């Protein structure tokens, strides 16, 4: 693979691997607007109110059409994102606040709307700084639609023009934005996008999830990028290193173009390994599983030949639902997902809300440290019925395939006992009601809180399997927010502390013969996989997009080689030393696959 010397660069967070060279296309703030702020006289109030109502109706109509289109073309779950936009567009408190400002303050509809959003944003300001607040992004999205219908030319901040403008371009463009809203992200489908660069948003933002699952290189956390880049500027995006180069010189450009070409060729070659067995060069079998968020992802997992679903994040069903989905809705949804992964084990994770994933209907309150707070399984005490219904739905769905149940964020043995009681109650309720369900659903816990890793022995007796959530385990271990670009360097999967804790968990599972999977992002990162395989891990769960690469990597290494690498790595004192050493080993084992690393 070519070597490239970096010139001037922006360092961000690598959220989706790959390299792209192309012309920038700026998506400016959807709320930018230069219409007059105030009405010229009170006689205009009524007509302004009518104009506002008309724009809202048009936006609602448009969103309803979008829901249908997305459901048909992408999937029900993605469509539900816009279902929640419909609820926002009809929100009585939002609409009446805007009307109030038009009537009482003589504001024009656009300025009243913009003011109301600012007030909402101020309430969430602290949370928004620390985490990418999806709900606020959704609100901005809805407001942008209404603003478009209020503007004379039906065009604000490039949102509406995105598809039209890009339809004419010959070469794929590099999308540069402060943030990417959900509807913008969805409207990228079928457009010529070479890469995405944003100023904010961590690895769990919609843009990151979307670009990763579609294989679009992306970098976030480039805080100054909008001040520097104009549409039409030449930009290089290196999604492996989180680097963005603006207006590079000819030599750098041609070097990166070569890397980009090689990247595409390699990707095309790798997907051909779908039907090959997942094993190392010396024939040690591994299980390569997929992380999914919805039914469409389950299909993608099947396309790349995943051995099963290692992590089904059910909270996306809740986030995109206007209220708590009931037992029957969940059962149907899980059943569809299981049927989209025929004959494979599907590991359904129970609700993991809180942290950066919130829903208004669960009464999520403001918390100074949401990741350290009322999150996930910790909500069970306050909402036992929600968890009970979910467990019932999973037990029923178990009749349609091989299903496992996975409990996230378990901190101690007491929580596990509480969950076990809930599972018993769910079984009893179903039996009493004469509803059939599977008695073969296996139970597992996620090890993602360091306390659980330390005291894992007590839990292993009561569960069938373990899944390590390295994303959270790392952030809690090193006390650094996983979505904050400023401390991203600390959230390093290849740090000595992380590897030692993993070694401890692997060892405990080995002693008791408990199957263990790792389902955090590091399971899709070639360097990390090399070390994990050498440490004895045999089950990896990752975004389907990474699976062909990891399969190819493991087929190029023997277990003895990997064990040697891991043994050496575990003696090293710093992340830098580890990274340097393992990068060199990776290029010996497979000179190409370093392309696909992104952390
Ligand atoms: C993890 O923490 O590693 C994990 C897989 O769960 P999530 O990313 O959904 O928190
Ligand atoms: Mg987690």
Q: Which compounds are bound in this model?
A: phosphoenolpyruvate, magnesium ion
- The figure for the number of domains is 3
CATH architectural name of the largest domain: Alpha-Beta Barrel
**Overall pLDDT metric:** 85
End-to-end distance, in Å?
18 Å
Describe, in short, the structure shown.
This protein has 599 residues and is α/β, with parallel strands linked by helices. The chain is 47% helix and 13% strand.
How would you characterize the overall build of this protein?
It is a single chain. The chain has 599 residues and is an alpha/beta fold. It has 24 helices and 16 strands. The protein has three domains: 3-28 and 158-266, Phosphohistidine domain (Glucose Oxidase, domain 1, 3-Layer(bba) Sandwich); 42-150, PtsI, HPr-binding domain (Enzyme I, Chain A, domain 2, Orthogonal Bundle), CATH 1.10.274; 272-593, Phosphoenolpyruvate-binding domains (TIM Barrel, Alpha-Beta Barrel). It has an eight-stranded mixed sheet. The protein has an eight-stranded parallel sheet with strand order 15-14-13-12-11-10-9-16. 47% of the residues lie in helices and 13% in strands. It has helices at residues 45-73, 76-89, 92-105, 109-123, 125-130, 134-150, 161-167, 182-186, 206-213, 225-228, 250-270, 295-303, 315-319, 327-339, 384-397, 413-432, 450-454, 456-460, 470-478, 496-512, 526-534, 547-555, 559-569, 575-589; strands at residues 10-11, 13-16, 19-27, 173-177, 193-198, 218-220, 234-238, 243-246, 287-292, 308-313, 345-349, 402-407, 442-447, 465-468, 516-518, 539-542. Helix 8 links the parallel strand 4 (173-177) and strand 5. The longest helix has 29 residues, at 45-73.
